[in-house]
Design goal:
It catalyses: alpha-D-galactose 1-phosphate + H2O = D-galactose + phosphate; a myo-inositol phosphate + H2O = myo-inositol + phosphate. It is found in: Cytoplasm. One of its GO terms (cellular component) is cytoplasm. There is one protein chain. The protein is α+β, with helices and mostly antiparallel strands. It folds into 2 domains: 143 residues, Fructose-1,6-Bisphosphatase, Chain A, domain 1 (2-Layer Sandwich), CATH 3.30.540.10; 115 residues, D-Maltodextrin-Binding Protein, domain 2. The protein is built from 9 helices and 14 strands. The two termini are 34 Å apart. The structure holds D-MYO-inositol-1-phosphate and calcium ion. The site of calcium ion has 5 residues, from strand 4 and helix 8.
């Protein structure tokens, strides 16, 4: 199979990041075993951050910046700290130090360190690592997707009536849309139930939801109000596993567009897209 290289050094970028993410995993695991960390809120009462989120992001960015001084970074906690999102053609690492911070705070073992790499605004590589369950998902464009080194494939399910779908109520969207959001989110659940969905799951981490679509145990996932760091790494993994990752309206994914729909097959993605009530966000970056 021809391999499409966006950059001759892409393998070096990926391998270096992978080793750093494994080290970061030890930080997260050690902190997870401690009784508590200092918890603060950010944009809303449900938007949490801990010292571990900040320490892991600082460690990843410091390590990558020292090795690749020309590279740029978009990190959840750096942005929360006031850094502007600048998405340029430069190799850009898109980082969520802990996706699933609420899980982390509540000691629910569904957390993921997410590191995605974009070059010329194209997502090229993704690493999603849950150091608690020891699930390491990786992918590079054209190379396939892997879990702990073994190839993974998304499901072949084409209809909602045979699907398990990841969905969350996305209560953070109340900040933007008020109670109207609850009606939309509950309506979106309802139409899937009426279409005969086998069940809904919500793992509390966008990246884990997507990694589970990639490995085929969940058939689809859609969410509004997410950010680039929640989905960039996992988007590469889903696509390389044979799945589709699109804007919920059916167009190409804009990683800065704050919404995502992914599925094992295009048919299932289209059926889900067609029944959702959509909301729009100002793109970031
Ligand atoms: C959140 C998780 C959650 C999703 C939110 C994200 P965080 O990320 O991915 O599943 O519903 O939209 O913000 O805050 O845990 O890094
Ligand atoms: Ca996140």
């Amino acid at each position: 199979m021809p391999v499409d290289y966006a950059h001759p050094e892409e393998d070096r970028f990926f391998n270096f990041a992978l080793e750093l993410v494994k080290k970061a995993g030890r930080l997260v695991r050690d902190a997870f075993d401690q009784p508590s960390s200092n918890v603060q809120t950010k944009a809303s009462n449900t938007d949490l951050v801990t010292e571990t989120d900040q320490a892991v992001e600082a460690m990843l960015i410091k390590g990558l910046a020292a090795e690749f001084p020309e590279h740029k970074f978009i990190g959840e906690e750096s942005v929360a700290g006031g850094q502007k999102i600048e998405y340029t053609n430069a190799p850009t690492w898109i980082i969520d130090p802990i996706d699933g911070t609420t899980n982390f705070v509540h000691r629910i073992p569904m957390v993921a360190i997410c590191v995605g790499l974009a070059i010329k605004k194209e997502l090229r590589a993704g690493i999603v690592y849950n150091p608690i369950t020891n699930e390491l998902f990786t992918a590079q464009v054209g190379r396939g997707a892997f879990k702990n080194g073994f190839p993974i494939k998304s499901s072949q399910t084409e209809v909602i009536s045979k699907a398990v779908i990841c969905a969350s109520l996305g209560i953070h969207n109340m900040v933007t849309f008020g109670e109207r959001w609850l009606e939309i989110a509950l309506g979106n659940h309802k139409c899937q139930v009426l279409a005969g969905v086998r069940g809904h799951r919500s793992f509390g981490s966008a990246a884990i939801n997507m990694a589970y679509v990639a490995q085929g145990c969940v058939d689809a996932y859609a969410e509004y109000g997410i950010h680039a760091w929640d989905i960039a790494a996992a988007a590469v993994i889903v696509k390389e596993a044979g799945g589709v990752v699109i804007d919920p309206l059916g167009s190409e994914l804009n990683v800065m567009g704050r919404k995502v729909l992914c599925a094992g097959t295009r048919k299932l993605a289209d059926e889900l897209s067609g029944m959702l009530t959509h909301v729009d966000f100002e793109p970031e970056g």
